[in-house]
């Protein structure tokens, strides 16, 4: 079988195995990401595997440069990549993307035993604002403010004082009218 046929078969297998798995993400037909660990787990990390043209005869490109791995020290990243490279050497010539993801999942605790979270230079609020557009591209519509005509603005300005506040009691119920109509019904 040629490298392209092997890749097509492995691609179909990965799609069927990881269908519905939120941790798996297909970036392109030859590039995949897998989150090892649950969301919110401080020891969770993201592995990206990209196939070369001659994969699986040649090793894939394994990366941990994703933004998700920002808090992991470079020493821990290098250690994880070295252990994954050892697994690549053992599996060279066979479809290994699934094997590498599973190997990382099975050895997550061992990989992250020396992990000490690195303080990111970007504050948490910055991270949230950066990631929000990527996670919800369908919610690009911004809420529009209600547009008022000149007459509506004038009417609103007449109701408010110089500070833009409505006068005290503007929404009070006319107690006298209610008490008169209520007393007639009671009699």
TrEMBL record:
UniProt domain RWD: residue ranges: 9-111
CDD domains with a match to the protein in the record: RWD-RWDD4
Stored Gene3D superfamilies: Ubiquitin Conjugating Enzyme
Start-end of Basic and acidic residues biased regions: 155-166
Region span, Disordered: 129-167
One Pfam family of this chain: RWD
InterPro entries: RWD_dom (IPR006575), RWDD4 (IPR042770), UBQ-conjugating_enzyme/RWD (IPR016135)
PANTHER family per record: RWD DOMAIN-CONTAINING PROTEIN 4
Name of the protein in its database record: RWD domain containing 4
